[in-house]
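Regression test case RT-17, inverse folding.

Input:
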């Protein structure tokens, strides 16, 4: 019997150490929130089979993958763990957003080459319905701010265009998920800017205020055109050529009102 006890002692010691110290959970700090500060929406840019393989077997991942047909939501990474979906990213000065975000990949062919140029594919309504339900649940769990529900193109405009111009951002606004520029305010501002279009430096400052990592060169360089194009894809998808115009200026003005100074 003594021999058995002696043999068991090292095992019991390992079990005791593995359990760790006793933690008292009697108190809670007032100053805290979720590690998930952003919710990022993507399209996969491929078929179901290719999308699933990439997101489960390659060095890229997302918390959720939403299939198009049949519509089904798959969780690939637990929400309390980091997924690798955002890459080199930035929004309002915060960078490398993988560590502070939840990613949703939406299975969609994305941007493909057609006879007349790049073609963006539509999202089935049932798939978008499922994404909206999922987004609302995640936002409720983590209290993610509406202005931090973004597309991959918002946080990486020099590399990415997803979820693209066919993604129904306006419907997300109608569901109360994201903010949206007031149409009447945009129309009123548009007339002003049609008469006197701001220079490129103005657009760059406004895009930076909105959240993009925008170069402040005063020149319509490739980086600025890329940012303008993805901004237009989201808020004015009828034309997203990356060229400054009165409507884009009006939308930017409404989305970035002057900050009211305190007394």
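Golden output:
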């Amino acid at each position: 019997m003594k021999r058995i006890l002696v043999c068991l002692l090292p095992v019991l010691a390992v079990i005791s150490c593995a359990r760790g110290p006793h933690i008292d959970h009697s108190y809670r700090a007032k100053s805290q929130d979720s590690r998930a500060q952003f919710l990022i929406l993507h399209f996969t840019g491929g078929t179901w089979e290719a999308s699933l393989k990439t997101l489960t077997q390659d060095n890229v991942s997302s918390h959720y993958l939403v299939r198009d047909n049949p519509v089904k939501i798959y969780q690939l990474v637990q929400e309390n763990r980091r997924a690798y979906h955002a890459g080199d990213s930035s929004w309002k000065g915060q960078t490398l957003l993988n560590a502070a975000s939840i990613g949703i990949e939406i299975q969609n062919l994305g941007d493909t080459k057609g006879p007349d140029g790049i073609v963006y594919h539509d999202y089935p309504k049932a798939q978008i319905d499922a994404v909206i339900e999922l987004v609302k649940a995640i936002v409720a769990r983590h209290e993610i701010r509406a202005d931090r529900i973004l597309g991959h193109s918002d946080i990486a405009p020099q590399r990415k265009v997803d979820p693209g111009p066919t993604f129904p951002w306006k419907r997300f606004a109608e569901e109360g998920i994201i903010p949206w520029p007031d149409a009447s305010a945009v129309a009123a501002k548009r007339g002003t800017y049609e008469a006197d279009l701001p220079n490129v430096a103005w657009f760059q400052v406004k895009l930076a205020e909105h959240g993009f990592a925008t170069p402040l060169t005063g020149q319509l360089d490739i980086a600025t055109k890329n940012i303008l194009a993805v901004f237009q894809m989201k808020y004015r998808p009828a034309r997203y050529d990356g060229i400054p115009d009165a409507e884009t200026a009006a939308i930017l003005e409404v989305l970035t009102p002057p900050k009211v100074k305190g007394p």
